[in-house]
Amino acid sequence: MNAVPERTSVAVHEGVLELDRALPLHFGGELKDVRVAWRLVGNPAAPVIAALGGISAGRAVVDTPNEKGWWSDIIGPGRALDSSGYRILGIDFLGGSGGSTGPRAGQNDFPSIASQDQAELLRRVLEHLKLGPLEAIVGASYGGMVALAFAERFPDLVKRIVVISAAHRSHPMSTAWRSVQRAVVRYAAQNGQGAEGLRLARALAMATYRSPAEFEQRFAGPATRVDGRFQFPVESYLLSRGDAYAAAYIPEAFVCLSESIDLHQVDPARIRVPTWLVAVIEDQLVPLSDMRMLRQSVSGPVQLAEFSSLYGHDAFLKETQALHEVFTRALSTTGDVK
Fold first, then answer.
1. Which residues are annotated as a binding site for substrate?
2. Looking at 72, 100, 115, 141, which residue is catalytic?
3. Under DSSP, is residue 186 helix (H, G, I), strand (E, B) or coil?
4. How far apart are CA 16 and CA 33, in angstroms?
5. CATH number for domain 1-338, candidates 3.40.50.720, 3.40.50.1820, 1.10.357.140, 3.40.50.300
6. 50 — phi, psi (to 5°)?
7. What is the dihedral of CA 119, 268, 316, 319, to 10 degrees?
8. How far apart are CA 274 and CA 337, in angstroms?
9. Of 131, 12, 26, 3, nearest to 62 (Cα)?
């Protein structure tokens, strides 16, 4: 296996787009004073790929001299998606905890946000930067939903989309899990314990991101006594992940974007741009059946790649080789999308 190159100096261009008018929202109403934080990394003369991830992801997609990107294990020079020939665009999602407009801590009246609203803001950024049509949108999880919404609404602005672990709608079982997570955060916030609620919600979410087989391998050991009671290995892991998340994110932003996932819905028959779908067999949140249904319903050229991974829904962060094969074919001008 080739060694992954170390971080090197790259051209970084970033800023915040401030809309001069209120943004009409997909579910009604409008949002004033909208800001969208964006970052472009790479050769200014190269074609642009927008890379969008889960609700915790943002504009810091790939490594820069001062920061490690959230997808830098997958996207970068010499990596699964070799960015040497592309410029990578990332944005902070509307309603999140980043530099784009989102709820403040303690705010409970921030409007509901749709994947279509995120697609509109991506379009505004492209217009602002005078980038022209994107070479591709590569979207995983929530970012894949946004890619589908963008392709449905703005087919002339993207040449192809690569959608990993995201379908045309949220599965009801996934909505069930996320609904409980949001209820935990809301209840805790009402009692002045928003961060603790977010900690527990994230711990529960982590149990849905990975596969039972991985947990069997990693956490089958015996419980140990902690502060006079038994604590299980998997419990320690989940709560530690919850601690890290609660220290970095705003509870109300988590609720906003979690709800946005469950509100997501597009009409696949209106998607005509070349589409590459990637499904993980062990994904508990996006069942293989939903990805196959999406493949059958997309009107344009479409391919579905299926692979197995211990990492379940989180495979888009881990499975370098499988994604390398998909990206190589999807971004090839001779890719056999049918």
1. 202, 314
2. 141
3. helix
4. 12
5. 3.40.50.1820
6. -85, 130
7. -150
8. 7
9. 12
Show pLDDT as tens, one digit a residue, over the chain (338 residues): 344 444 456 799 999 999 999 999 999 999 999 999 999 999 999 999 999 999 999 999 999 988 999 999 999 999 999 999 999 999 999 999 999 999 999 998 999 999 999 999 999 999 999 998 999 999 999 999 999 999 999 999 999 999 999 999 999 999 999 999 999 999 999 999 999 999 999 999 999 999 999 999 999 999 999 899 999 999 999 999 999 999 999 999 999 999 999 999 999 999 999 999 999 999 999 999 999 999 999 999 999 999 999 999 999 999 999 999 999 999 986 445 65
Please give the full DSSP string across 68-132, using - where no structure is assigned. Answer: --TTTTTEETTSSEEGGG-EEEEEPPTTSSSSSS-PPTT---PPP--HHHHHHHHHHHHHHHT--
Domains in the chain: boundaries: 1-338
For residue 170, which of 158, 159, 182 has the smallest C-alpha distance? 182
Give the Cα separation of 85 and 323 in Å (integer): 17
Residue 252 backbone class (left: φ over 0; alpha: ψ -120 to 50; beta: rest) = alpha
What single-letter DSSP state applies at residue 210? S
- Is 313 known to be catalytic? yes
Q: How far apart are CA 333 and CA 338, in angstroms?
A: 13
Residues in the chain: 338
Q: How many CA atoms lie within 13 A of 112 on its CB side?
A: 10
Going by C-beta distance under 8 Å and a sequence separation of 6 or more, which residues neighbour residue 9?
A: 65
Q: Can you give the three-state secondary structure of 231-274, one letter per residue?
A: ECHHHHHHHHHHHHHHCCCCHHHHHHHHHHHHHCECCHHHCCCC
Q: Considering 26, 168, 264, 313, which one is annotated as catalytic? A: 313
> Which is the catalytic residue, given 63, 92, 283, 290?
283
| Residue 97 annotated in active site | no
Three-state DSSP at 171 gives coil
